Input
Amino acid sequence: MNKKKLNLLLDPRGYQERIVINLSPRPSLEELKKGKLLFYNNTKLGFCNYYAVFDRIKERMEELGITNYVEYTETVRGKDARKLAEYAAMLAKEKPTAVIVAFGDMGTSSSTTVLTIELEKLGIPAVYMTAPPGTGITEGVGVYRAGHLCLCSVDIYQASTVEEVKAQVDLKWDYIISSLTSNGEKLEKLAHINFKMDKIPPAKNGFLPIDMKADEDELLEPGCYMEEVNDYFNEEHISDGLPIIPPTEKRYEKIMEYCPFDEDLVLCDPSGPSGKVVTVKDVAVAAIMAGCKPNAMPVLIAAMKALNSPAYNLNQSVTTSHPGGNMVIVSGPIAQEIGISGKQGCQGPGYPANATIGRAVNLVIMNVFRSVPGICDLDCIASQAEFTFCFAEESELAQWKMINEERYDSKTTTVYVLKAEPLHDIIDFLSLNGHDLLDTITACCTTLGSNNAYMPGPLVVCLTPDHGKMLKKAGYTKEMIQEHIHTYSYNEVAMVNNRGLVPVRPVSFANRHPMPVTRSTKDIEVVVIGGRGGHSGVILPWALHSEGCVEPIALPDGKAAKSINEFKKQEIRRR
Output
């Protein structure tokens, strides 16, 4: 039988509404001389020798007779799209003739690109100074959210000298001044972004234009066309590199069996390079690809809601250079009901529910927000935590109240999310009492190379059953463990000054000696998981305006579910 090309597979990116903004009319050089030039520093110029970028631009401007400057310095960290637009409107009140924006090299690159776009929308010509690896993400944000933008990349890094920085600015001087004074075709050429992926936007019909001579029934057969499908998904950067299950319509109907939520329900606000929202449908498609069972959908929906908490800082978390993943801890009866494990080896291979649920979360982030490693993500090295990072608490192992019991009750199942590193091993086979053991654990809760040395925040102590038993036998409550770690896990101030990264600490920490790695005992979660033995662990945080967030697994009416079967009894909205 002759088969024709069919659009068989759902597009995991969802529909991208590619907005092309009108770039602001550029002034002439004479108008630039008469007007006011605004310099905006997102605080990234405040360390290493990066401020030489502005120094050299000002020197070159003065050679042209441009001397009327105003400068603003404020971080974009913690600002969502609305706050960035408000800040741009505040800058616009200066009525500048043009704006120089800096600096886009790392984690603030994405948000600063959004700010630059907002300035252009307000009629203010702008050029944004960037550097690798931030250049890649600024290009992505520029394409997805504006269509074009004047981006000037200079090849500098943390050890560049003042002379090297200024030399790089000189190399790009013609681009900088032309971007501020050119119009028409020349401006379009300067603002063109030759992005590496998604050159053809996802189609409105929601399907991938994959050219296969197959029908849907054949795609449901194990192994059939799988190599072709996986090759296509990898080439289009809509997979994590591991084999995926093709997201067919029939599989979509199947995955929704435990999902009584409207497929168009928005779970996450616009974030990441694409600036897209996440819907229930987006999560379902990722769940199919990851290999999830249908009963995983309520957990995934709760996880995405938790990620969307303002306290999580989702927008910046999805593109940070930090190697952390989006850790998911499920606590309560539904975890074991659907096979999420907290037992021996629970953070490794062998547990399908753990692996597929954690994987689905990260596929949503990569595919919908387009945080693609090596192209539109700032990860320097990344880690296995960005493939999957999901496990459970087990009531039969717990020595103290679990997360769900502390926040709600024993019958409610919760999802706790944290942007965090993979587990750091804590080995102690020789301590004979809980007091010595706790000192070992405490000593592992920071290093000079960990984010929490500079940004105190939440961490998760994972105790094996043996270690949990030892601590409880020695008389420790969870609160006492938290108090001990909060008191004795710190770094000497001399060791954290002028290294690592720019610190983000509470104002009250300004004169602390030594410097704590947590803000209070509430920053410390203690869970008992795994198997017998002397290898516990600690999970250290990203902590950049980012908290651990908890969400109950709830029905559409907001009522906490006691069993996964409650979701199946609900009426499902069919496509």
